[in-house]
Amino acid sequence: MKIAVGSDEKTYLSQKVVEDLKKRGHQVELLGALVTDEAMWPQVAVDVAKRVAAGDCDQGVLFCWTGTGVAIAANKLKGIRAALCNDPETARGARKWNDANILAMSLRLVSEQIGREILDAWFSTDFSSDENDHACLSFLHKLETT
Length: 146
Hints:
Blueprint: E1 2-7, H1 12-23, E2 27-32, H2 41-53, E3 59-64, H3 68-74, E4 82-84, H4 88-98, E5 102-106, H5 112-124, H6 131-144
Parallel strand pairs: 1-2, 1-3, 3-5, 4-5
Helix pairs in contact: 1-5, 2-3, 4-5
């Protein structure tokens, strides 16, 4: 799987997550402060979201201090379902019920171990086959076209 990864800061956590993604066999495309000295969180989020929305990357991972800003910015793009996940169960639910395609994490709250557990949950969970969950996503798709 090809994954776009962006952050407004290059930190221990962001570097460890990138290493973990590569160990899992994913192709990783780095954006923002992971390749430059400075990056604005909304621009990093939009850059990752554009890669995912265009189909150039299968999924994305974003970081900022709280994780909230990058999730908000990424969700401005059509077809993006960015989820702020600071624990494994939230990540599992975001994939299962929301078919989230961008994982956002807080640089402040998430430790290396929790980050690994979040990735485990994210990549081991598929979108639900429940018709209500599909109806909810259809509702969101319709909102994007109005």
